[in-house]
Amino acid sequence: MSLVIAAPAPITIPVAGGGSFPVRRIYCVGRNYEEHAKEMGFTGREPPFFFMKPADAIVNVAEGTIGEIPYPAGTSNLHYEIELVAAIGIGGANIKAADAMKHVWGYAVGLDMTRRDLQGVAKKEGRPWEIGKAFDQSAPIGPIVPAAAAGNPGNAAITLSVNGQMKQSSSTSKLIWSIAESIEHLTTYWRLEPGDLIFTGTPEGVGAVVSGDLMEGAVAGVGSLKVKVR
Ligand code: MN
């Protein structure tokens, strides 16, 4: 069978130490730190929920370099959300939390960029979130670090500064639903496959960036991520 149009390029993320990780899907956990849930007007005492970004929203940023994203169309309130990202190496459905970590191949530092104004309209109108969350170049990400080399991502400092000023500073130990628990919930609804990414949620302190701003995010043991808004 010959392709009738050109196939899209495969989406891959470089792996720290060599090789590259092919991306299938991007799942994101919503409101997964209590203080962030509160700043968004919720209690933080709800079951986990999920949304997705397209794989081609990935913007690869090599360690030690400054990545760039355009200021996206249609918004006047572009928000940063620094997140720990888990990269799935072994798929499965109905995975129990106790078994979940063996499905994780590695970790990365990611930004869940958000058109907050459009997300707000979607929430208010009961519409889907894609326009606020799943836009082009909405998922800048650093290299994937193999799990064995990633320290303790379940208890790691997670930070984001903008133009040198600290905006988000927390610990992944404050995730409401741990990586393992998130995988358990997620796989009751979807079958995870190798190449899936899970953005695990952002701590409190989200806010807006404008053209020219430099975001510097980090998760201790996993790496750092610098992204400038064009
Ligand atoms: Mn998020």
Description:
By secondary structure, the protein is an alpha+beta fold. It has five helices and 18 strands. The strands form five sheets. The protein has a six-stranded mixed sheet with strand order 4-3-15-8-9-12, with helices on one face. Strands 6-18-17-13-14 form a five-stranded mixed sheet, with no helix packed on it. The protein has a three-stranded antiparallel sheet with strand order 10-7-16. A hairpin with a 5-residue loop joins strand 1 and strand 2 (20-22). The chain is globular. The mean pLDDT is 97. Bound molecules: manganese (II) ion. Residues 28, 81, 83, 112, 199, 201-202 line the site of manganese (II) ion (MN).
Helix count, per DSSP? 5
What is the arithmetic mean of pLDDT?
97
SS elements, strand count: 18
H-E order: EEEHEEEEEHEEHHEEEEHEEEE
C-alpha end-to-end distance? 42 Å
Helix content: 10-25%
The coarse silhouette is globular
**Residue share in β-strands:** 25-35%
- Poorly predicted residue ranges: none
Q: Structural class from helices and strands?
A: alpha+beta
Question: Which ligands, by name, code or SMILES, are bound?
Answer: manganese (II) ion
Question: Largest beta sheet: what is the strand line-up?
Answer: 4-3-15-8-9-12
The radius of gyration over CA amounts to 17 Å
Main sheet: strands, sense, barrel = 6 strands, mixed
Distinctive features:
binds manganese (II) ion, 14% helix, five-stranded mixed β-sheet, six-stranded mixed β-sheet, 5 helices
In short:
This protein is of the alpha+beta class and 230 residues long. It is built from 5 helices and 18 strands.
